[in-house]
Amino acid sequence: MKLSDVIERGRLRKFTAQHVLKYAEDALELPRSGSQGVHRLFSPAQAMRLALATRLVAAGVEVNDVPPVIGFCEWQVRRLSRYFKTGGPLYASRLTQPWRLWMIENELVQVHGPCARPDLLDDSKHFSISAGKVVSEYEHPVMIRCEGVPVTRLELNLTVLERLIRE
């Protein structure tokens, strides 16, 4: 699909998507720009990466910090999903129990899989944007400073975003 299709389906801001392409195209393994008049063609997985990256940048994440966050999301889904199939939708799930990305205080990232019982969620893995690695929430200075009660929590519904892109 073309860039205009990804922007329209993902309900993305055009200039933010272009900014992501300009500064993170290689790190996100997105199609390279050709000569003028040649359109980029995105696979469904590449389109989802661009849509997720654009949403994260629009939410205030620095464009250079986006590729490791997306890498963490994809790793966490493959780690937690029993039904993952290469080539298929990565965030496939029922809409009532979607894959969700939570970004806490613009610093910690969590990925929650489909689960009917919230008490069974695997909250053990967090990605620290500033440290660039997986950390424990209770050890992170941001969570210690706010005594475990964050002021800001951004939630992205990955399942819905992927369905919009693949329509």
Task: Give a description of the structure.
Helix content is 37%, strand content 13%. It has 167 residues and is α+β, with helices and mostly antiparallel strands. The chain has one domain.
Helix-strand pattern = HHHHEEEEHEH
> What is the total number of structural domains?
1
Average pLDDT works out at 81
Task: Extract low-pLDDT stretches.
Answer: none
Q: Work out the oligomeric state of the chains in this entry.
A: single chain
Structural class: alpha+beta
- Taken from the alpha-carbon principal axes, the silhouette is globular
- End-to-end Cα distance, whole Å, is 11 Å
**Can you count the beta strands?**
5
How many H/I helices? 6
Q: Over the alpha carbons, how many angstroms does the gyration radius reach?
A: 16 Å
The biggest sheet amounts to: 5 strands, antiparallel
Q: Numbering strands along the chain, what is their spatial order in the largest sheet?
A: 4-3-2-1-5
Q: How much of the polypeptide forms β-strand, as a percent range? A: 5-15%
Helix content: 25-40%
